[in-house]
Design goal:
By secondary structure, the chain is α/β, with parallel strands linked by helices. About 35% of the residues lie in helices and about 20% in strands.
């Protein structure tokens, strides 16, 4: 298992071990941990009841990584907020705050860039720069809560990157953010989205989290899925559905299948029938998503009449289905668009 040595990525037990090794009292770890994960401070200087010797002992060999806000966009339509954050090495990531009646939901990134290559996604256009540390995932949540002064109640790991391509950092982030000594966001209020890395679905299920798993399906057969998603060349739909059933049976959690509707590609009635057959008998929910147009791609959003017809075909077969409410359409809310625009402007300066 990987061990992250930046302070915000450490568990309380790791902080205790580090501080005791430096000759500090064990209880100082709880103080530092509370400042980082409950009071959400950005610097060691803000920890007013922690002695200077303790701070220096930590910072001597362990950096304090986080994110810095570079840009913020606010939707005039629905108040959705999109953030561009800078990392310590000059990389950037995106996060989104969405306000619902049930609370504030934050969508965070797990990688700087992405290597999965899904054809309709802006996140993958610039490739993968690197994985994020647990601290950098956490601090996207913390920074938004600091900026708004409002509690975050739900977290979705569905921004830039493939979470299961950064597996151990993801699991560490979940452990910290759901812990009682952190923000204490219940695991049932956490959602992790994957494009379908089959071995990692089994690994995640074996840890028995109560996290909602969302699988980006986007097709009802292998031929179309291979056209849209390169990962389908490695893992067939049959293999993916076996892994999905394993997750449901081991965790007792309902699974969500994300299905982006692309005009003329995967939005036909026959494909709706295939999809219904694919998930028949499974404890699942289908989330239909009119695809966000990306200028570098030729794919277009399905017409509303086709979205409605697709939904009806599933409902007639007693499949639980919703059409995702589109939020932040006026602020480039599709994954990767804000980050890509920032990098392009930076090159031209």
């Amino acid at each position: 298992m990987e061990k992250w040595m930046d302070i915000r990525s450490m568990t309380k037990e790791e902080l205790e071990e580090t501080l005791q090794g430096a000759g500090e009292k064990k209880f100082r770890a709880a103080q530092v941990y509370g400042w980082l994960h409950q009071k959400l401070v950005r610097t060691m200087e803000e920890m007013t009841n922690v002695p200077l010797s303790c701070k220096e002992a930590l910072l001597k060999e362990h950096p304090l990584y986080g994110v810095t806000e570079l840009e913020r966009q606010v939707s005039a339509i629905d108040g959705t907020m999109k953030f561009l954050f800078g990392l310590h090495d000059g990389n950037t990531v995106e996060s989104v705050l969405m306000r619902y009646k049930h609370g504030n939901s934050v969508c965070i990134s797990s990688q700087a860039g992405c290597r999965m290559g899904c054809r309709f996604c802006a996140s993958t256009l610039l490739g993968l720069e690197r994985n994020l540390y647990p601290s950098e995932m956490l601090d996207q949540i913390y920074a938004i809560q600091r900026a708004t002064g409002e509690r975050v109640s739900h977290v979705v790991v569905m921004g830039t990157g493939e979470p299961f391509d950064n597996f151990e950092a993801l699991c560490r982030m979940i452990e910290i953010v759901s812990g009682k000594e952190g923000l204490n966001i219940g695991q049932r209020n956490l959602t992790v989205s994957t494009c379908g890395l089959v071995p990692e679905i089994y690994r995640f299920a074996d840890r028995n989290p109560q996290v909602t798993l969302a699988i980006s399906l986007h097709a009802s057969n292998d031929r179309v899925r291979r056209e849209l998603m390169p990962v389908a060349n490695k893992y067939s739909l049959e293999e993916l559905m076996e892994a999905a059933n394993y997750y449901v049976s081991h965790t007792g959690r309902r699974i969500t299948f994300e299905y982006s509707l692309v005009k003329g590609v995967n939005d036909h009635k026959e494909q709706a029938r295939e999809l219904a057959e694919l998930v028949r008998g499974m404890n699942c929910h289908i989330n239909l998503i009119p695809v966000n147009p990306v200028k570098e791609r030729e794919y277009e959003q399905s017409e509303q009449k086709h979205v409605a017809a697709f939904r009806r075909m599933l409902e007639k077969r007693h499949i639980q289905v919703t059409v995702r409410r589109e939020m932040g359409r006026d602020i480039s809310a599709a994954c990767g668009q804000l980050r890509k625009g920032y990098k392009e402007r930076s090159r031209n300066v």
